[in-house]
Predict the structure.
Amino acid sequence: MKAIAIEKIGGGRPVKMYTLSEYLLKEEKSVEKNEFYNGQIIQMPGSKATHNQIGGNVITAINIAVKPLKKFRVLTSDQKIYIEAENMVVYPDVLVICGAPQFWNGREDLIINPLLIVEVLSKSTRKYDKSDKFMLYQNLPSFQEYILIEPNKVHVESWFKTADDTWNKLTVNDLQKNIALRALNVEITLADIYEHIF
């Protein structure tokens, strides 16, 4: 898995390598978001207004849906996830945790217990989000559900981890229907996800 991600990102060119500590120091001062891939620092592409709108809509919809349950926390795309098994730091678009957040080595910028992760797809990240990044997230013991949202058409996928460690896919393409967030035991409407988009 590690080799796949590094080869994809590095593209075969010589790349300066950093320790995790060096990356975290640089990231604290950076005006742009950068992810960390086992020694490589990779600048993230900027997102467009549609992408940001959908991300905001999802955060609002999930917050409203889980508020009565009082056990989930919804975090934005500024929250980093650390995948210790692969020595990688990534930024999801949205993540949800159950109960108290767990931080790597007590660092509040590195969450290690996401329950549900949402990625809004883009031309530059679609292939990675649907394959390598999904596989990376599966190294997190707490991770149970992965939501992928197409920004240019009504299409939402949910991948849910079952008791036997297999992943089941659910797809919804109708703006008038709901998507079940099975890890949270709630539903949100596609109309809310795509508000002001379609």
